[in-house]
Amino acid sequence: MSKLTYIFVHGLSGWGSYDSRYEKMPYWGMRNGDLMVQLRELGYDCYAASVAPHDSAYDRACELYAQLAGTVTDYGRNHSGKYGHDRYGRDFSGKPLIPDFNDDTRLVLFGHSFGGATIRTFAHLMEHDLKEEAGEDPSPLFKGGMGNRIFALVTIAAPHNGTTAYDLYEDPDFDVNSVRIPLIEDLAGNIRGKVNAQKPLPFNDRADYDMHIDNALRLNEQLKLSDNVYYFSQPCEMSREKEDGTHVPIGKGMELIFRRSSRRIGAYKGKTRGGFIIDESWRQNDGLVNTVSACYPLYNDHKDFDPASIEKGKWNVFKTRHADHMALQGGLTKRTEVLPYYKEIIEMISSLK
Length: 353
Known about the structure:
The chain is 30% helix and 16% strand. The protein is α/β, with parallel strands linked by helices. The chain has one domain (4-350): Rossmann fold (3-Layer(aba) Sandwich), CATH 3.40.50. A seven-stranded parallel sheet has the order 2-1-5-6-7-14-13. Strand 9 (239-241) and strand 10 (247-249) form a beta hairpin. It is globular. The N and C termini lie close together (7 Å). The mean pLDDT is 94.
């Protein structure tokens, strides 16, 4: 079997090795230094992709393919027409993310946060054809038949089933202002909102649309598991339950900028516009994502991770990690050493060859 190549895909508002800011502050590793460099020094072939920070999982998956293949991003004839944007995007011709991308390639894809939906969509497109997107001179991506290039997927704190961080604002039966937010957390939450400000995009072709629960569940129904791929997920939590059943952030462990959203997620239960019931099990969170949503996509087969029995074609769910949403990136202000964590996962996956 060919050597495994490890591709790391960032989440919402993130960045990768094609972006200038990565050199100063690597998304993978943060102030601990570039995780890709550290893993390469251990002999692992690792690369950090750069996909559109706020675009839909589909658009990001198309861009990821273009980076790997070293070509122009093609969003497809039908998709681009439907959502009113250019069919072609960033050009990676002559500057592929990896040296060779062919049928001998075996990819292990890591996706943090919304990067999880991105790599799931990418893996689906690689295996299944989208004839309606082909048009004239189509990207090979739309022909499918390349599922053999995907060896494993690993999602980190990914909102597989969406996050109530969006839906709670749209539930008329939930009063956001009833949740008490300390002033310093409110101010920090405003700063995060400015950082996440995005370019104008079609309302239904962008990341925050995909992360609404109803929309995430529809995506789950479309993205079929492959019997030939290993799937792993890492849920995280950094909230505690109060006597009244609500959850609040653990201050010593959670970044300040996440605590406002954590309190609101931790107080919410209700119903989505599509009628999906959000009960108390959705209150535990990592600051941005409900822990229950990060375990596995609903409608997908799954099991608790067992090192003695790792199965293809279903989600092997790691034990919930006591960490906030960015801790496994290295942390923002709360520095976390992450090399041992990723090294252990990579060694485990390498043993499956």
